[in-house]
Amino acid sequence: MPENPRPTLLGIAVDTVDPNGAPRTAEDLRTLVLGAAAAGVHLVTLGDRSALDGGPVRPDRAGLEPASVLAWLAPQVPRLGLLAVRSATRAEPYHLSRAIATVDYVSGGRAGWHCVAELDDTGAVVSSHPAPAPQERAEHAVEVVEVVRGLWDTWEDDACVREVATGRYVDPARIHRLDHRGTHLAIRGPSATPRPPQGHPVVAVTLDGGPVAAALGPLADLGFVVADTPFEAAARAAAFRAAADGRPLRALLVTDRVGPVPADGIDGLLLTGVDTAEGLAALRSESRPVAGPTATTATTTLRQTLGLPRPVNRFRAATGTPTEAAHARTA
Question: Is residue 157 included in any domain, yes or no?
């Protein structure tokens, strides 16, 4: 193996709270995300880093809302994948789907959602939404992810016809109600936002061996593997892929240093603890000679960077359309 090889994919977790526990300002986060982009990484996650430490998102560490910050930052950081850390346990799926879709539009298709879920009452102080019983929360989170993905599909890709001659902006026949009625949620739809550029922004989950990982893993495109040993990392990545039933996905190992990918089934690294000026400076000096520039361009979507296909809209899945076929060729 070559010395200090760069992993195929490299990301950085940026916390909305600084190492002393103080919420970071929008300008603080801008500086860090721009620094991550300068280091040549492929993606950043923005939110409470507790989600990668094997624990729940902690309301006492709450900073700025990640999706809003990323929508502001997206035009300033071309090429970089932008994943917002948001809870499925306390989320309103309708608003969450719109927030992530907005980042996808503003960024030109580089958005993602790092989906987390609290299994206790740690999120109660930051939401008036009544939480399900603890034993039902993983199941509730699964339903939220399914609804969010469904809402992204309620507009077909060619629903916005923009016919100047007739004054018709949308074709109502290409906008659909979701009409979801599940155990925990009833969502009529459709979304108020057209289908995102990626079809579905990338959905990521933390793979820590817990019940949330087991429940959400089959719905995710990207897994952040938390493990103590290479054997454990390989086992969790293998379980993640097995649950996908052949669907393409990617797995990044959560670590605090750049180095060789240590386990089979791991596609790269997600770095934690480097989201400081000093940490990013060290990363630039360490990874640049090994990494070279990333292979993305200003028009590359996050799905393309990760090598993931663009999902077909469920309302056209039976027949397909020229629009879907064109997206499939470019994904």
Answer: no
Phi, psi of 87 (to 5 degrees): -80, 135
Q: Are 100 and 67 in contact (CB under 8 A)?
A: yes
Considering just the CA atoms, what is the radius of gyration of the chain in Å?
Answer: 19
Query: What is the predicted pLDDT for the residue at 1?
Result: 36
Structural domain count of the chain: 1
Distance CA 322, CA 135 (A): 44
- Write the CATH number for 68: 3.20.20.30
Exposure class string for 39-63: b at 16+ Cβ within 10 A, else e = bbbbbbbbbbbbbbeebbbbbebbb
**What are the C-alpha distances in Å from 84 to residues 53, 81, 221?**
16, 10, 14
In a domain, 174, yes or no: no
pLDDT at 6: 46
Tell me, yes or no, whether 163 lies in a domain: no
Residue 140, pLDDT > 80, answer yes
Q: Is the pTM of this model over 0.85?
A: yes
Give percent helix, percent strand, percent coil of the chain, each to the nearest 5. Answer: 35, 20, 45
**pLDDT (tens digit per residue) in 152-199:** 999 999 999 999 998 899 999 999 999 999 998 999 989 999 999 999
| Burial of residue 329, with CB atoms counted within 10 A of its CB: 0-12 exposed, 13-18 middle, 19 or more buried | exposed
Q: For residues 248 and 310, what is the distance between their CA atoms, to the nearest angstrom? A: 11
Task: Flag whether 268 is in a domain.
Answer: yes
pLDDT on residue 299: 74
Tell me how long the chain is: 331
The pLDDT tens digits for 42-53 are 999 999 877 676
